[in-house]
Give the backbone structure.
Amino acid sequence: MCGIIGYIGKENPKEFLIEGLKKLEYRGYDSAGIALKNKTETQIIKSVGKISSLEEKVNNEKIIEANIGIAHTRWATHGIPSEVNAHPHKVGKITLVHNGIIENAKELKEELQKENVEFKTTTDTEVIAALMNYYYKDDVKAAIEKTIKRLKGSYALAIICDDCEKLYAIRCESPLILGVKEDGFFVTSDIGAIINHTNKYVLLGENEIVEMDYNNYKITKNGQEIKREINISDLKDKDNNLQGYEHYMMKEIMEEPVLVDNIIRKYKDNLDLLPDLKKYKHIHIVGCGSAYYAGMIGKYLFEDDGIKVEIDVASEYRYRNIIYEKDTLVILISQSGETADTIAAMRKANSNNADTLAIVNVETSTIARECTYKVLIEAGREVAVATTKAFILQVLIISLLSYKIKEDKKYLEDLVKIPQQLKVLLDKSGFYKKLADSIYKHEDVFFIGRRIDYAISMEGSLKLKEVSYIHSDSYQAGELKHGTISLINDGTIVFAIVTDEETHDKTISNLEEVISRGAHPIYVGTEECSYESSIIVPKVHKKLQPLLVVPTLQMIAYYVAYKRGCDIDKPKNLAKSVTVE
Ligand code: F6R
């Protein structure tokens, strides 16, 4: 949610900032802006819409000679997407960009208005700039320190001041790292934005201020200097390129077989690298969106392994009165590791002395850093807003954790075949395109399934609706007749996910119920069937079955969205990393 990049160094920041914003665009894309600064001037350029509009505007303006710059791509929270509300915000001598939400912005604004401070926007960010400018006399760091003492909420800030040739940054509950280049420094929400220029980075703790000039940086907290090691990222720039694909979503789906194979090779004969869940009597699983659905698959698997499991979406879990029993493990699932609600859930579990396990992609993220244990899914960078490869790898890790609880020979036999089977399934693009042709004009699609098949249905339905904007719902197959069946009309598409042996016949009966009310069925299962439309995948161990079914639904979602002309990698109203509540 909102992407930040800043630079100070020997070069003009313009190119770095625009290139970086393009790589951060997945974090929000309703408006963007940059501020460039030299000794005497600060130039601000903003634009509504995607980074390409900002780039066009920047290219058409006379740009000042500068060595310092900050930039921002926005996902609106306070105030509509507009040029005036876009960042950077400048008040007096302070110019800044912000990712996060200031919960007490209204009170602070009223307080400043009483002091005759004027506001041009409806954003919470302008309030931070105004407050900092209010506190600023001749020491930016002192003004930052005073300001953050007054803020409630989350923030990552990159700050410049008219009076000095320095760049400042600070973070609290929103991501921000420092990038170290031979002849300059970056701050950014995501290492991917600067990986072309440096792979050296420093993690910043909460409320640590980093102050950069052309030669040095210094990190302090409450006036005390803090030494932090420089890390080396192994992120490859290939993760940032389309590599010939038209969309990241397709590129990332196509990466699944290799990534799955890598994880299998790593853990198959080294299960001791994974935490042992056997010692826990209770497991809580928490995540948001797709990560939650990956967790739902985990719930069914771990319950079958004999462990008591509770599952909740993070935005509910954080506000529930949970009784933490002895021997409880809380599993946090998150691709980004920066989802605000999941972070809050993790902190709740940590403060209740439960062990926490992160199943996470981004190694530098808050969740990866603060959990008791972590397992990295090693998906590489996921750029498309709709998750695909990260979901599959989350499920694979869950499946391996479950196998570690209860080992069985058949699982291993099937496990090693998965990458090849997945590849064969993904190679059938013509088949998915044809199926998408029969779906893309519909406005309502239903998914039904039971147990793990229901979790798969939820993910299939989310994928379809988020990228194609077709209304889609998922139901436990037995639940449809308790109300929703009244929505079934002639030709309504119903996907039935039917891989679970024990409930197969029951779900088929539910499918027949909707067919007799006019539905057009799409059977998704492991056995050849007589339905007109079907997706058949190889039958494998039940702990592995979702790894073959979900990718087929991802392909259909992609092709349906393609046929409808949607902005597949950046669906409307969304952002990849949800760093606000
Ligand atoms: C859907 C999707 C989202 C994320 C959710 C959690 O395609 O990508 O539902 O799964 O926002 O994000 P992370 O995994 O980063 O915590």
